[in-house]
Design a protein that fits this description.
The protein is built from 2 helices and 8 strands, in the order ααββββββββ. It has 171 residues and is mainly beta. The protein has 2 domains: 6-47, no CATH class; 60-167, no CATH class.
């Protein structure tokens, strides 16, 4: 049994530490320790918008056998893919170049396709979709190969064995 007289003495250092950590002026310190703007929390820094391209903000469609999307940190906030279709094999892993998602139509799946969205660009890949989020400051690049087709509104459509769509990011 703990002696009731010893308990306050044991808690005193802990209470002093808690009080020191929550001093009234700690919320107005900046990262450099000075007064001014409050320092952003880790959650605020994670959720802060990152620089992004305007290239994929108008509705468009891209269809090809294979599609590869590469971009900077934050790319995955702009890409939506199918997560669990029975006709698809999906691999996600970290590689030296960044975080890789690779979705492939299973060999025995007849008529299956991979659907994805990059902002307002609707994507259909009939064999493989690869998404690579790179850690450094790079632009967004979409590479389509194998009977590639791109269309956006009344703009002239593009067709070819391969197409490249570039999204410059102003930094």
């Amino acid at each position: 049994m703990i002696d009731s007289m010893l308990l306050p003495r044991r808690l005193a250092p802990l209470l002093a530490l808690v009080a020191a950590c929550s001093s009234p002026d700690s919320s107005t310190r900046t990262a450099s320790g000075g007064e001014g703007e409050p320092e952003k929390s880790a959650q605020e820094r994670l959720l802060a918008p990152l620089p992004w391209t305007e290239a994929f903000q108008k509705p468009a469609v891209l269809i090809a056998t294979d599609v590869r999307i590469e971009g900077p940190k934050g790319l995955l906030r702009h890409v939506a893919t199918i997560s669990d279709a029975e006709e698809l094999n999906r691999v996600e892993k970290t590689i030296p170049e960044g975080f890789l998602q690779d979705i492939v139509v299973k060999p025995d799946a007849v008529g299956a396709e991979i659907r994805a969205q990059l902002d307002q660009l609707a994507i259909v890949a009939t064999r493989r979709l690869t998404v690579l989020e790179r850690p450094g400051p790079v632009d967004v690049v979409v590479l389509a190969s194998g009977d590639a087709y791109w269309a956006r509104g009344k703009e002239p459509e593009k067709r070819g064995d391969s197409l490249r769509l570039d999204g410059k990011i102003v930094r």
